[in-house]
């Protein structure tokens, strides 16, 4: 099973990809996580792109994704979160999968209004150690600014301030939204209302997957 999950920043791609990864027992490949790892290691180029809310160049992203998808743990399938983000990346992915003799089973588009996204992201807090995510309004930690799972401090990402969030959404709308038509024409696209609670969104996606599996079996 090969899934592509996309949607604007704050739509819940990471959360849903993790849930689906556990259910389907296939890896969650997040370009965002890879970029943040690079930032943590001090990669100044990555720092400039992400903190300014800009897209990392296709050539760099394609190289990172190709390396990940050629690893042994992706042989039985994978979930792509945050990639592709442009038509050029989508074409590059298609070419890579052709070489690997694989194909995308379905594409899930998480759809949600801009103000909901801004609220979610400005209220988001992440654990510095284990990466667990919280929302100080809808899903707060038991102890203020302390991770429930490992007890480490929670932090707000620098790119989660309101101005940067709106800029990131604008970049998404201009650069990534055309992928909706791209995958719609290929009859792979499935739209999911991402304004609901995480478990409701997850159940909607699972139903789509089950329907797809049944149709192709």
Task: Summarize, please.
49% of the residues lie in helices and 15% in strands. By secondary structure, it is α/β, with parallel strands linked by helices.
Say what the CATH topology of the largest domain is.
Answer: Rossmann fold
Helix content: 40-55%
Largest sheet: 5 strands, parallel
CATH architecture of the largest domain: 3-Layer(aba) Sandwich
Secondary structure elements and their pairing?
Blueprint: E1 2-6, H1 13-24, E2 28-30, H2 31-40, H3 44-51, H4 58-69, E3 78-81, H5 87-99, E4 106-111, H6 114-122, E5 124-127, E6 133-135, E7 154-155, H7 162-176, H8 178-185, E8 189-193, H9 198-216
Parallel strand pairs: 1-3, 1-4, 2-3, 4-8
Antiparallel strand pairs: 5-6, 5-7
List keywords for this structure.
three-stranded antiparallel sheet, 217 residues, 8 strands, Rossmann fold
Q: Any overview of this molecule?
A:
This protein is α/β, with parallel strands linked by helices and 217 residues long. The chain has 2 domains: 2-112 and 161-216, P-loop containing nucleotide triphosphate hydrolases (Rossmann fold), CATH 3.40.50; 114-155, no CATH class. The chain has 9 helices and 8 strands. The chain has helices at residues 13-24, 31-40, 44-51, 58-69, 87-99, 114-122, 162-176, 178-185, 198-216; strands at residues 2-6, 28-30, 78-81, 106-111, 124-127, 133-135, 154-155, 189-193. The strands form 2 sheets. A 5-stranded parallel beta sheet has the order 2-3-1-4-8, sandwiched between helices. A 3-stranded antiparallel beta sheet has the order 6-5-7. It is globular and about 50 Å long. The mean pLDDT is 88.
């Amino acid at each position: 099973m090969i899934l592509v999950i996309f949607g604007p920043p704050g739509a819940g791609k990471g959360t849903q990809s993790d849930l689906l990864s556990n259910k389907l027992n296939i890896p969650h490949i997040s370009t965002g996580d890879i970029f943040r790892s690079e930032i943590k290691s001090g990669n100044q180029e990555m720092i400039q792109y992400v903190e300014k809310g800009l897209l990392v160049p296709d050539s760099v992203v394609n190289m990172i994704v190709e390396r990940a998808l050629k690893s042994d743990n992706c042989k039985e399938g994978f979930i792509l979160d945050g990639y592709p983000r442009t038509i050029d990346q989508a074409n590059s992915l298609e070419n890579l999968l052709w070489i690997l003799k694989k194909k995308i089973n379905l594409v899930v588009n998480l759809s949600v209004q801009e103000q909901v996204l801004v609220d979610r992201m400005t209220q988001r807090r992440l654990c510095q150690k284990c990466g667990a995510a919280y929302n100080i309004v809808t899903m707060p930690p038991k102890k203020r600014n302390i991770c429930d799972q490992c007890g480490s401090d929670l932090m707000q990402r620098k790119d989660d301030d309101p101005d940067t969030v709106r800029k990131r959404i604008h970049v998404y709308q201009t650069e990534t939204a055309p992928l909706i038509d791209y995958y719609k024409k290929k009859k792979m696209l499935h739209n999911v209302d991402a304004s609901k609670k995480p478990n409701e969104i997850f159940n909607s996606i699972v139903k789509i997957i089950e329907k797809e599996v049944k149709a192709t079996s």
